[in-house]
Design a protein that fits this description.
Number of strands: 0
Strand content: under 5%
Low-confidence stretches: 26-34
Radius of gyration: 26 Å
Mean pLDDT: 82
Order of helices and strands: HHHHH
Largest sheet: none
Keywords: Signal
Helix content: over 70%
Number of helices: 5
Number of domains: 1
């Protein structure tokens, strides 16, 4: 009886490291999937926030409401700060984070342009239009990253050109 037990334990010893490696690899894959899922949820949340802000910014530009534009730029600032914090901690910045940055820049720059006169106004509005074009590109990439249908996202640029 003792002899059989000894032979069986040597087979299990050979299987042990393989089983442990398999368990560790499975745990790592599950952790990666959990991180991917968390990143996707974060990207989707930012996508929703930026999409909602896009409509508000376009409306505020059309109404020439510089106070609302400044406020919207500040609201988007929290998304940008979170992205910078993630990047400092070794994480990645998503396309949606970049879209938030472009939209915030367009909003704040157009707010400054609305209260300015002459050449300064012209330059600020050109910068805002350029930021709106960047926003459009970033938001289309954000749509893809969030798994949403790609939209045109031209409302901010159209509102700025209408001024």
């Amino acid at each position: 009886m003792q002899g059989r037990f000894g032979r069986r334990s040597t087979r299990w010893l050979a299987f042990g490291p393989a089983a442990i490696s398999l368990m560790l690899a499975t745990g790592a894959v599950a952790q990666d999937r959990g991180q991917v899922s968390a990143v996707h949820r974060q990207v989707s949340a930012v996508h929703r926030q930026v999409s909602a802000a896009e409509a508000k910014v376009a409306k505020a530009i059309s109404a020439k409401d510089s106070n609302s534009l400044s406020s919207l730029g500040n609201q988007l600032g929290s998304i940008i700060e979170a992205a910078l914090q993630r990047r400092e901690n070794g994480g990645e910045v998503s396309s949606c984070d970049m879209a938030a940055h472009s939209l915030a820049f367009a909003a704040v720059t157009s707010a400054d342009g609305l209260i300015s006169k002459g050449e300064a106004r012209k330059l600020l509005m050109q910068d805002a239009i350029s930021a709106a074009a960047d926003f459009q590109k970033d938001m289309q990439a954000c749509d893809k990253q969030a798994g949403k249908a790609t939209g045109s996202h031209t409302s901010v640029g159209k509102a700025l050109r209408a001024l």
